[in-house]
Design a protein that fits this description.
Elements lengths: L11 E2 L12 E9 L11 E2 L1 E9 L3 E4 L2 E4 L4 E5 L5 E3 L5 E9 H5 L10 H4 L6 E3 L2 H18 L6 H23 L7 H16 L6 H7 L4 H12 L3 H19 L4 H7 L5 H12 L3 H12 L1
Parallel strand pairs: 1-3
Antiparallel strand pairs: 2-9, 4-7, 4-9, 5-6, 5-8, 7-10
Length: 296
Amino acid sequence: MYVLNHNQQLPVYALTPDEATGNKYFRVYNFEGSLPHQSELLIPHRKDHYLVVFIRHAGVRQWIDMTPYTLKDNTIYFSGPNHIIVKEEFDQLWSTGIAFTKEFLSFQENASLSKLPLIQNPQDGHELLLTATDVDFVEDMLARINEENNTPGEWQQRMLTACLTTLLTYLSRLYTAQFKEGVVSADKLLIKNFQARINECFREMHEVGDYASLLHISAGHLSEVVKLQSGKPAIKHIHERLVLEARRLLFHTHNTLKEIAFDLGFSDASYFNRFFKRETGITPAEYRSTIRKMYH
């Protein structure tokens, strides 16, 4: 498994504007047996945008966070801005990918998309298996999106939004079936909002009270609902997110423990060391050594 050298920072790749339309918030990628760009090969990185890709044929392997995926034929893969991606192999690719930014989701006509399960991804999944019927539907919608993307005019944006909404809604239905997500109650929605805020602010905010203020409720109420619905204290959710990010950085980079500690908002590296061991049972150094031996 490739990791960044000590002097390398984890890069964040921005969405490249579409050459034909100049759109910097949304674009479609089509590969018909061509080779993807080599610039990202073997480089752990994040993207600043969402990516939903229909793989027709690939057979190569890539990592999303600490999980390797051998790309299957006729399968959907998806990721968001928080995830660390490593493309491990370089080969011909048959696929269509749709990329869009947070700014795209903030547009009034697209606001509902941000609430879809595929976008919120509460189960932290990245692979959707498709039936033959699903493949036919996805192929049809991608063909429509490609057609509209290449047809500038007064109605282009509305048609693109309509087609994308249909596709992402369909995939969200598959997502909830595949990952067995139940009906969302008000309390469960509060947990989702809490977790979304953690994803946005975990580096700066380590206390339950900080998130309660963001959600405009009392810390006591937030703690009560989170414990009742998840079985875990609210502070545990914050700690788990910090541990996840620490594991990502320990696995994918050669950053020192002090650098990782500061990146995660700990002013004292020794406290971060104790925190990590308390949460995982091993020190950060022990985790890095063990995980590297496992995948090298």
